[in-house]
Amino acid sequence: MNIQLIVLGILLFIFAIIDFKVKEIPSILLTGTLFVICALNLGNIPFGVLSFIFAYLLYEADFIGGVADIKIIVTIGLLINSIYVLAFYIIIVLIYGIAWKIIYKRVFSKEKECPFIPCLFFVYVVLTVINLL
After folding, report:
1. What is the pTM of this model?
2. What is the per-residue pLDDT across 21-49, written as a single tens digit (0 to 9) for each?
3. Are 78 and 51 in contact (CB under 8 A)?
4. Distances in Å between the alpha carbon of 131 and those of 38, 68, 92, 125?
């Protein structure tokens, strides 16, 4: 397994915990991670751009809550190197996202804002386990 995938997985796990508990992640951490992943995967920038457009669409539809979610979606998108994997990524983000929002609302019904980075962490784990990244 690529060291880049392991390090990103650890970072996403940390970001997911912070997002779940505090619901706020320092922007410098996410932007720095995005920058490093982009610099290491220059050939995948078109998939990162498509991931950004998808993430922004989710943001405009109020499916995700903030810029942090957009940055994580783009960061994972920069690891993708096939249009078929990108299509699978989009589908799995939607399916896991809907399931996560339903579960979160039932368990933590008092909470208004749903942290989405834990869901994106599970999407990343699935993509890594089935060897699509």
Report:
1. 0.93
2. 988 899 999 999 999 999 999 999 999 99
3. yes
4. 20, 25, 14, 10
